[in-house]
Amino acid sequence: MAHMGVESERIHFSWVSSAESTKFVRVVNEVTEAVRALGPNRRFVKSHGLDRQSYDEKAA
Amino acid sequence: MIGYIDKIKQISKQILEDCKVDMVIGFRRGTVPMMNEPCVAKTEDDVDQFVWDGHCGINLANYLMGRKEKIGIVAKGCDTRNIVTHIIENKIDRDQLYIIGVPCKGMIDRRQVNNRFEGVREVIDQGDTVKIIGADFEEKLDKTDLLQSNCATCTHPNPVIHDELVGDPVEVPTDIDQWADVRKIEAMSTEDKWGYFDDLLKECIRCYACRNACPLCYCPTCFVDESTPQWVGKSQDPIDVRTFHFLRAFHCAGRCTDCGACERACPVGINMRVFTQKLEKDCYDLYGWEAGLTTDVRPPLDTYRADDPEEFIK
After folding, report:
1. Chain A residues with CB inside 8 Å of B192's CB?
2. Which of B59, B76, B187, B276 has the least C-beta neighbours within 10 A?
3. Residue A45 belongs to some domain of the structure
4. B 266-285 residues with CB below 8 A of A?
5. How many folded domains does chain A comprise?
């Protein structure tokens, strides 16, 4: 994913056991913080036939 | 390379006569220049059609899957690596095969020839040089300048398994960086990477020729043809096109031998080897694995080892 040009901060892998509730919370927080810092994803989103600009306007 | 054909014919006739095989798969001259086509010889007379030169780039391992007969096959270095992969994946038994190994000196890139010359009528591979004949011209070029890009950086030109070789093994170059293209992309910024692949794939018409030419793509129903569930959109949307190419490459991870069949088959000339090469490089860096070199070791993606790299899991 990173090789194709998706920001590596959006890509997270983790292994959380069902007994590791605190780790689960930490991972979810880390992922949301990292993605929020990047802002909305503009890549790897289908434009549904619209050009980029009108798609962005519609999405906003 | 020219001398190979007599030996190929001689071996093919012999194994057919001895009933060691039911058929021999080789190449015959195609109907257009630089496009030799697969040829299945079932009698000794059929064998006379066989040719061998720098236009035999099609990967014949593609014709072996699930066959029940005993088959003789003419195979280059990369073809034999795909045959090994087939054996590992239980697509064919080693006992069914009689492999006529051809030490390969590289295949000619027809696109380069067609880009440089107009109206090419015949291209004759003379070993080190290539003679290009058109309606009103005749040119001689060094073969090294016209090789397919995967052949120019090939590190396994000699067959890895064979029952008979048609010539002495060719010298294996040692000073080649086969992943120079991948390194170039790896060094790009995220933005540039995205743009690079957008640009690379903009011509794709999703004809799936790359998939059909690939010996690894033998699933009875390909993920792109599935409708329940539908894994990937069927439209020409750039995101669907990109998803198709990346997923196909992932299905070839640890199996691809960089034979170049996909790139060769592409009607619009997309170099999709940049996808498979990245995965090939990753497999080498992470597991020290090169596909199709031996039938004794299971590939890294279907084995578990306690020391498998896992730095990406947090």
Report:
1. 5
2. B187
3. yes
4. 278
5. 1
